[in-house]
Protein 1
Amino acid sequence: MTTQQDSVYRLARVMANLVVLSMKIRNAHWNVTGPDFHSMHAFFETLYEVIERDVDEVAERIRALGSPAPGHLGELIATATLKERPGSLEASGVLLNELLADYETLVVGLRHDIRASGDLDDPTTTDLLTGLLAQFEKAVWTIRSHQVSSASGSVPQRESDSCKSHSCCGG
């Protein structure tokens, strides 16, 4: 496998995981229930908006390497290591726990892919993946912070208290 093929393979897996994660976050956005609905609905929206930009950046890098970006949902789901989640009404704590596990899985995978792309002497892909890693590590922190809020029953009441008002998760 050439350096370019290896980078495309890794990027396609990252992109597939991002597409699955985006759908899981949208699912959470649509189906969250409970007294913290409004704040969690807004929080999930900020998360999936960032992921959508990430999908585009990864797809464009794949194209820059001379390969077609994956565009078939079946292909993406088969390539992803993250698993889909059926739609169901859930309390925010359940959804946050699942998303936290997914983000942590992506962090581990990105660290591995960064090391591999560095070994392949592909600095542009390494840079893209490093940026994603930093963003996902920050998302892990914000999700954990929201878990504490949800567990304590502390529900932000003002829009300024939501994630949209500051720069967490790319918002």
Note: Helices lie at 3-31, 37-64, 73-79, 92-119, 123-152.
Protein 2
Amino acid sequence: MESYHLEPYGRGEKEKQGSTLKRRDPNRQLEYLLVEVVRLQLRVYNQRFRATGLNQSQVSALVHLDRIEELSQTDLAARLGMRKAATGTLLEGLEGKGLVERRRSREDRRLQLVSITDAGRNVVDQVDHLAEDLGTGYRRGISRDERLQLVSILQRLRDNLRRMDTPGEGA
């Protein structure tokens, strides 16, 4: 199995006086670093978005709906990387605040369509300003080319993980 370590395990040999295997600092391993970055991002963004009364997942749903206009609940769940039931719960909260509306599709009554309301658009405008400031600080010291390369790598990692998450497929 291929592993993504930022440094080789050079010092990871068995110590001469025992069988303990020394490993590199997790801060130098891609998998651990990604998890830490995501946790920190969620914490920082949730702190800033608290003024809107929403969390990162709710904001993400609104942003997707603002950009796409209308999505099926299933498509929104896929875009958010959430299960359908969890997305339903998230939408109930947003619907209760008057930020989204749900309705049955006329073409396929099984489909639940979700759209953003004007109140939801106002929240997205507020969030866009917050996110612009956050993003500037978040990306400080990283060039545009480095960001583009990182985005490309992260998309491939995401695609690999999605394939691994599909029943019947895996590593």
Note: The radius of gyration is 21 Å.
Protein 3
Amino acid sequence: MLELMRMIRESPAKTTSRKLGPKSVKHYHTVLSTMFNDACKLKILDENPMENIKVKAPKVKVKDKNFYTVEDIEILLKLLFKHASIKHQLAVLITMSLGNRGGELTATRWNDVDLQNMRFRIDESNAYTPEAGSYIKDTKNEPSERTVAFPPILVNLFLSHRENECLKREM
């Protein structure tokens, strides 16, 4: 097993260094260990030969987060209210306030918005594939399904947007 792990560590990879990264080595170790564990459970092997072979966990590089500054947000809001339609103002403010994903925003229906209690339900997402086109699906994962409160400033924007949508239908 030690020889196998050495071969995995030194095997050529399709990278500039021609070596597998620590994450890949750890992955192979986990796969082999799991495979031999299953063989032990099935009584094919008496013990897991990977049990005493340790692999260092890969160092995780923390990526710099790219956040907007207060000044950036002030500029955005100033331009938003001066130049954008109510629909776009609402989209930006919902996303800034609630932190939802783009697909979640575009899958929103009027029955997801509770104006009286200022609640916004997120339980679906819009997706696109070239084969199927645009379609509605469940959110990315179960914890993504949520009902969140929104700030009072959005109530009037929702009402104005609804009114605009009704006027469009009448035309």
Note: The chain has a mean pLDDT of 85.
Protein 4
Amino acid sequence: MDDVSRECLEQVPCACLKTDYPVSFAIFALARSHRAKAASMLADIGLFPGQEILLMQLAEKDGKPQKSLCESIGLDHSTVAKSVARLERDGLIERRKCPEDGRISQVHLTARGRETTDAIARVWAELERQTIKDLSPDERQALMAAAKKIVVSTAVPEEIAATCEQLSTVA
């Protein structure tokens, strides 16, 4: 473990959390560290964490209704609406009325948005490389299996099926 990682683990809001709840604290420290690394890497391409997920959803199927984005990402409408507005302002997406039903707003990638999805893939590839570089193939599989079990045991019922489906397509 390098000095930065050790220092991160030692910055405990309450020492009892680390000793009394070691698994939960380890997950907290892992999530915080990974999100900070991802945020730094995404900032290099002008994005905030979470925006890349929305853009990659559109890369898979462009023209999704905004409501569908909320459901597939698992975020509330106001959070997605703010991200969509910011991404639209930055020229990465555009909203268009559905030709069949003008009440529905469809979200489309712009040419710049498509270019950004290529950069996102490179960022995630590097993030993955850095994340797993010290893990053996067996440790990677064990981590994925443990993560899936923890998600199932901690997710609220309506999140379980979607999250398990996302995790199972990875392993």
Note: The two ends are 26 Å apart (CA to CA).
